[in-house]
Amino acid sequence: MKIIVDGFGGDNAPLAVLQGCELAVKEYGVDLLVTGDEEILKKTARENNISLDRIAFYHAPGVIGMEDEPTALLKEKSDCSMAAAFNLLKGGAGDAFVSGGSTGAIVIGANFIVKRIKGIKRAGLATVIPTINGCYMLMDAGATLDCKPETLTHFGMMGSIYMNKIMDVREPRVGLVNVGTEDTKGGELQQGAFSMMQNAPMNFIGNIEARDIPAGVADVAVADGFTGNVILKLTEGLGSMFSKKIKDMFMEGLGGKLSAVMMMGKIKDFKKSMDYTEYGGAPLLGVMKPVIKAHGSSNPKAFKNAIRQARDFAERNLIGEIEAAVQQMKNAGEE
Amino acid sequence: MKIIVDGFGGDNAPLAVLQGCELAVKEYGVDLLVTGDEEILKKTARENNISLDRIAFYHAPGVIGMEDEPTALLKEKSDCSMAAAFNLLKGGAGDAFVSGGSTGAIVIGANFIVKRIKGIKRAGLATVIPTINGCYMLMDAGATLDCKPETLTHFGMMGSIYMNKIMDVREPRVGLVNVGTEDTKGGELQQGAFSMMQNAPMNFIGNIEARDIPAGVADVAVADGFTGNVILKLTEGLGSMFSKKIKDMFMEGLGGKLSAVMMMGKIKDFKKSMDYTEYGGAPLLGVMKPVIKAHGSSNPKAFKNAIRQARDFAERNLIGEIEAAVQQMKNAGEE
Fold this sequence. Notes:
homodimer; alpha/beta; Isopropylmalate Dehydrogenase; 2 domains; 11 strands; 46% helix; globular; lipid biosynthesis (chains A, B); Phosphate acyltransferase (chains A, B)
């Protein structure tokens, strides 16, 4: 198993990337191919005593940043670490790819270099988010803003396969995010998706309201990329707000400070249970090869987790499962 | 000043409605006209010692429920308390209207009985939601699912006028909810709205991300009704989840219970600061008369607050302000 890693993706690259690679080799015994400016990568490893056992480099001097247009990946930035990685992935030099770089550029590279699975017209970025007593997959978190009923149906099917094969959820409950739970709710997009999803190969539970998502009403919450992106970011924003409010509550007055000491462990557990980076990166589903988007602010441990995720993605043959599901849906439609 | 009140709107109607009316008469000296089955209303008042000073009834025996199609208001349920109230409002029997009934039916009644302000094609439901240190108005919270750039522009203008005249915010900052803050972000709808909003009479601050809304990045967050409804409901759902997590943290173990005793006051303050029903009901903006949707689970105090809101809405001539803003925008476009 060989995983390709973008050496210059993320706020803490290349140091955190290389440290994550070292941890992953030790823990999972994978082989890694890291793209980027070889001289800088070697120097960073040397200066930080990072073992390069089972880690190879592929020289690509450029970097695509958050300020660059995502499409620059295919043009003026085609020499960058991410573009090189996508081309290596396409050519079969590795089994899966991990990057902490620009989400927009990753979506472009996946769609235009690696290309999509036959029958899937749009890729979706899947993010696993904590609920009150577990987690759910939000699909799509922002890769495809303008969706059709078929797009949402494919998102549901792919999310279901991921939750089943990678997160070990039996018959994942797939819900369509809507403004009400009744079958006829929503606009044209949701109404069209509802009837298509009812007949697709997955455990579709119908429309769900955003109010019920944090309580765990579904294992996969399907939404167009615009709505999904709003859900992801509002979850982050409200999480920060509540954490700050709780912190202020404990910092104020003697009662608060004493309580903070007594409850230190619980506060830490609470924070951890709300931290969605614990679940690793976000898989981009619908493309021909496994692609994992690590969080931009990933630390070495987060990169290590994303590499494990990429390995599982490749090992458990998710691409094959998705291809089979699309075929099954097509056959059912032709009957 | 006379406010029309739907006697049978809300989970706790008619008792909570009548109790709220009694409080409002005492506190604000308004005259009220309550619609519904007169016999039941009188009996409820008598049995609960509710003073009917300055409260008149208008007999309308039917009730439109949450399970009814909203459009039933215009047809088979045209004898209900809400339909009667809308007709009274249209005819000038009162200056404003408050209902805790079905949101869908209120939107229908406002659009088809009272009708919209000239130049405004869609009405929006505005909800005031707490932020870390204040509040913001979400517009639209679900009245109009399919929006055009012009719809969003009008939502921003109307929300701005409301926040200025009713919530006393000087030059309200109006932001467009989008997937990024750059000017070119989003789909067709957002891109079209962005350029139109830049030239409309309001303090438009550009695109905002859902992540920054709870931190108070804007006074008015503009979104289509689908996205807005998801924002409102996810805010509710995450609020419940965090409250439950905090409660569990305090209920567990001796340290937790001791802390709960020491921090009782702060926990109550925290809960209150997160309760968006404190801000009263949701105004439906864009129609010819003031309409306030009270929360379905409103208690007497919430109904009293919604009646005060309706009074302010009428007294401060919001309809006139909105008409003037629409005209100003029209003139600017013709220059």
